[in-house]
Amino acid sequence: MKIRVKFGKEGALCYIGHLDVLRTFQKIFRRAEIPMAYSKGFSPHPIMSFALPLGLGLSSEGEYLDAELDLESGQSSLFPPEHSASFEAIKGLRRELMERLVRATSVELPVYDLRFLPEKCENAMASVGRALYGLNLNQTWTSPLEQAGKSLLERESIPVEKKTKTRSLEMDLRPCIYRMSFHQNRLILELSAGSRANVKPEAVWELLLWEANLPENLSPLSIRRLDLMTESGLSLGEVGEEVPYV
Amino acid sequence: MRKLALSEKILNTVEKPARYVGGEMNAVIKDKEAVALRFAFCFPDVYEIAMGNLGLQILYDQFNARPDVWCERVYSPWPDLDKILREEQIPLFALESQDPINTFDFLGITLQYEMCYTNVLQVLDLGRIPLLARDRGEGDPLVIGGGPCTYNPEPLADFFDLFYIGEGEVSYNALFDLYIQMKQEGAGRQAFLQAATSIPGIYVPSLYEASYHPDGTLAAFTPLNSQVPKKVRRVIVKDMNTCAYPERPIVPYLRPVQDRVTLEIMRGCIRGCRFCQAGMVYRPVRERDKDSLMAIAGHALKNSGYDEISLSSLSSSDHSQIAPLVTELMEMCSRNRVNISLPSLRIDAFSLDVMSKVQDVKKSSLTFAPEAGTQRLRNVINKGLSEEDILRGSALAFHGGWTKVKFYFMLGLPTETEEDMRGIPALCQQVASLFFDEIPKEERKGKIQITASSSFFVPKPFTPFQWAKMEKKEEYLRRAHLVKDTFRAQPNARCLHYEYHDADVTVLEGVLARGDRRMGAVIRRAYELGALFDAWNEFFDDHRWQQAFADCQLDPDFYTLRERDENELFPWDFIDIGVTKKFLRREWERAMEGLVTPNCREKCSGCGAASYGCGICFEGGSQSPSPVTADAVPPSPASGRGRER
Ligand code: SF4
Ligand code: SF4
User: Fold this and answer.
1) Residue B360: closest C-alpha in chain A
2) What is the CATH number of the domain that holds A23?
3) Which chain B residues touch A42 with a CB distance below 8 Å?
4) Which residues, in sequence order, are CB contacts of A91 under 8 Å at separation 6+?
5) According to CATH, what is the number of the domain B360-501+577-607?
6) In the Cβ-directed half-sphere of B295, how many Cα atoms lie within 13 Å?
7) B193-208: pLDDT as tens digits
8) Cβ atoms of residues A179 and A134 within 8 Å
9) Residue B141, SS3 per DSSP
């Protein structure tokens, strides 16, 4: 049975890398006594994956993790709902799983939501297409940046150079920016993310500084990931249903 | 959310910022206004190493169980952050509250190895605590040292207000009670230190005076006033089953060196190898029984979420319930998909059977620690592992599919000859030949790989070899090269690999291990010259230390190249570890005669540790009616070998 967990990263957790957070979640599931399904092979590991790694130093309120549970093994007090299970019974299971996770995690790694995924659902990593970020700005730069933002959005293309390990490619950033809006001291960015084109908020930030003629060593007060979405803009937290089982 | 001591900018610059942010699972947060005593527990090395330490987890748990105490952690900042803290003048802080450590009541530093001594100074320095205890005033934390190196705390005497000699579970409560009471009464630092000497296991170095003979050896070591005890007796836990265990270990986010639950199954070792400090200073052997271990294991796994558990002790095979314990543990673990790791099990049919169930035979290796290459020298060091044991164990293992073997040896042991050195490759060759003889070609599952590694012997306080002399660096290297060349000449040289440890570090370790108070100046000078993270090859620089010795006009050879006189007063003699100096001397003499001494389970040798009134000394197995008096009657030489086997 597949589930998707929505979680956040705060405080110390902002400095914990992707793999360490994955290992931490494995421990959280164990503490919560929620049995995970394991991969086959000589060194089996729990089947669990993240939607998209988050850069070190960023906080978030919109991270996703897909996991496969093994409630059939009978190793826990949790049981998979019968085929004919009532709506209430499945809701009860979801509530129980949530409660256990919340109890087993820490305030700096909050668990917000949990959904059951249909068997054939694309996993979070494959379905991610956009990411939403909030950048907190210093008041004094807001208006030049807002101007710069406007002029960027008016362009048809924004060619930038993208360096890979071996060569540098030219790419167009314009279609990767779905949204760039200023709300007082806050800049909201909705950018391409995932395997097709992954644009980091820092890259857009650099572009804005350059366009606004601001010194390039300025950095936003903080960057926070707000959510992850599919290519078409649906939040990953809305994929699947709360109680879709059977 | 907690406020972090380091800015986002700094955290984004340093390598592995997770080392400095705390907030791990089971880390304890309290209201600092609501506690009477704040304790910063320091392991003076980098986070990943420090978090693997079991002692830290035990004391953290124990201290925080008191509502009036908040214990936090602090580790050595890695050189990248060290530089930033100095440049930006940020005081070193504890992980939990992120408050500067100089605002705490105590800074407790665990001393696990000599090569961390300069890191101790780094922590004090960055913590803005005066380096020298005598320069500290009322507002400064009390700096207390514990751990294995306190069995000779003298090289660090200048830097510590107190040392705790023995097992942490015993006296800290009394020390904290005393502190809290005296603080409320408004008593000063000096009064507290004086009063603390009445607590068992507490040593206050500033209340003792050392004087030296013209030849540099210690003449006298005397308390400054009559209330201070002449001897400080090591404190120990008498009953392991009633002593608390951290059932909620802190679970780091960064992968530590020990990424698992550590289950301490017993303390002490029955074997009495003559070079081994742990074997002497943790006597007598005290076990936790199987049922209490199973309960602890269950809780610790559940509360941490670890998927691995490791047995910990000096010699796990000697636990009297090892087989049923391992069997039960394996059942529990396989039900819950938890892996078991079993270090320090003797290789025999039982352990091989267990190992084949819990690990990949093809990838894992057998480990033997014969320490010396010939039976003669193994008798001298009292290592009861014979060639026959090794060959029998290896043969069993080869049939079970193992192809990798690791050997640990020491070079430079007392009485070592070239024959003993050549014995090392010879023994490895024998094991290689055994493989080819025992396993027919078609059944060989892989290439046999034998790795031998040797360290150089460092005489440690409170061992029978505490009188021994060391060699010069050049001599160590000559011996290592001789062994290496002999390895090359073996018929199966292709399958044999040999590596040896650094000789510079060995000599320095030797000086620090048996040094006296005068070493304090050298450690401080070396730190000023930039010595830091000396336990790390990439940072260790012997020149700094040579310079420090020269600047302080101390001769390192005085500490290493001298065989000590039978009656020499040692800097650590004021500590009473239970095991008597007389017993150690007797063991030294038996070593020189090549006589083996039986282990505690075979027969009590009256080492003195029975005076603690617990553990193996009072088990039926060791046939000792009254081991305390037994020490007064040393076995006569005439009783010789016959009695020993
Ligand atoms: S077996 Fe020997 S070397 Fe190992 S801990 Fe015991 S006394 Fe020390
Ligand atoms: S008194 Fe005897 S049994 Fe006890 S530790 Fe010493 S030698 Fe072993």
Assistant:
1) A42
2) 3.30.70
3) 360
4) A242, A243
5) 3.30.750.200
6) 8
7) 999 999 999 999 999 9
8) no
9) coil
Q: Is B616 in the pocket of ligand 2 (CB under 6 A)?
A: yes
3-class secondary structure per residue, B351-381: HHHHHHHHCCCCCCCEEEEEECCCHHHHHHC
Q: How far apart are CA B398 and CA B404, in angstroms?
A: 9
Counting Cα atoms < 13 Å in the Cβ hemisphere of B307 gives 17
Q: How confident is the model at residue A244 (pLDDT cuts 50, 70, 90)?
A: low
Chain A nearest-CA residue for B304 = A31
CB-based contact, B493 to chain A, within 8 Å: no
CA neighbor of B340 nearest in space, from B359, B322, B321: B359
**Residue B268 CA: which ligand 2 atom is closest?**
5
Indicate whether B1 pLDDT > 80: no
Interface test with A, best of B19, B25, B28, B96 (most A CBs within 10 A): B25
Q: What is the pLDDT of residues B593-626, one digit of tens each?
A: 999 999 999 999 999 999 999 999 998 654 444 4
Q: What is the mean pLDDT of residues A38-42?
A: 84
What pLDDT is attached to residue A82? 66
**Measured in angstroms, how far is the CA atom of residue B572 from the centroid of ligand 2?**
21
**Partner-chain residue, chosen from B11, B303, B337, that has the shortest CB–CB distance to A31:** B303
| B22-36 mean pLDDT | 95
Q: Is the peptide bond before A46 cis (omega within 30 degrees of 0)?
A: no
Residue B481 φ/ψ, nearest 5 degrees = -70, -40
Total residues belonging to chain B? 645
- Interface check for B89 against chain A (CB to CB < 8 A): the answer is no
B116 sits in which H/E element: none
Q: Which of A83, A104, A126 is the last residue of a domain?
A: A126
**Does residue B284 line the site of ligand 2, with CB under 6 A?**
yes
Domain that holds residue A135: 129-229
Q: Cis before residue B635, ω within 30 degrees of 0? A: no
Residue span(s) of chain B under CATH 3.30.750.200 come to: 360-501+577-607
Q: What average pLDDT does the segment B484-508 reach?
A: 95
Ligand 2 centroid vs B272 CA: distance in angstroms? 10
Which residues, including other chains, have CB under 8 Å from residue B388's CB and lie 6 or more apart?
Answer: none
Q: What residues in B contact A15, CB-CB < 8 Å?
A: 11, 17-18, 21
Lowest mean pLDDT among A228-232, B164-168, B426-430, B441-445: B441-445
Q: Residue B11 and residue A12: Cβ atoms within 8 Å?
A: no
Distance from CA of A109 to the nearest CA of B (A): 10
For residue B567, the tally of other CB atoms under 10 A from its CB is 6
Q: What CATH topology corresponds to B260-358?
A: Transcription Regulator spoIIAA (3.30.750)
> Average pLDDT over chain B, rounded to whole?
92
Summarize pLDDT for B388-418 with one digit per residue, the tens: 999 999 999 999 889 999 999 999 999 999 9
Amino acid at B46: V
Please compute the mean of the pLDDT values over residues A11-32 and round it to a whole number.
94
